[in-house]
């Protein structure tokens, strides 16, 4: 779905905000499911490797218990996220542009903190630059429709 939104945006549908472009199709494609599965399994793999290295005695019972816990939580978390997302959708949509603005400002501020050449910029100027850049991107993604005055 995300890839389809990006392709639609790049192919000439600039008048629609990319984040809120909606289609009748609500299923994910095979690529999106595959990427989600890989992303969800990475943390479980890292934790299971560390857990396996920390075990004094490795046997099938303890490995199976560990696998059931990890698998159960990996299945439960996306389901809880779906339920919370469906429940809070109307509240989040009301402030989505502000959420995007704050996230973009945080990303730009970290850019000034971690990029070697930009570390020399004063904190006040970096705040101004981050605010203007985030506001410009949000204005492009979330345009406000003008109201016509009755003549």
Number of helices: 6
- Spell the H/E element sequence: HHHHHH
Oligomer kind: single chain
What structural class do you assign from the helix and strand content? mainly alpha
Compute the average pLDDT: 76
What distance lies between the first and last C-alpha atoms, to the nearest angstrom?
A: 43 Å
Helical content stands at over 70%
Keywords:
disordered N terminus; 6 helices; mainly alpha
Structure description:
There is one protein chain. By secondary structure, the chain is mainly α. It has 6 helices and no strands. Residues 1-6 and 12-23 have low confidence and may be disordered. The two termini are 43 Å apart.
What secondary-structure arrangement, pairings included, does this model have?
Blueprint: H1 2-10, H2 30-54, H3 60-87, H4 89-94, H5 96-114, H6 123-141
Helix pairs in contact: 2-3, 5-6
Entry summary:
The protein is built from six helices and no strands. By secondary structure, the protein is mainly α.
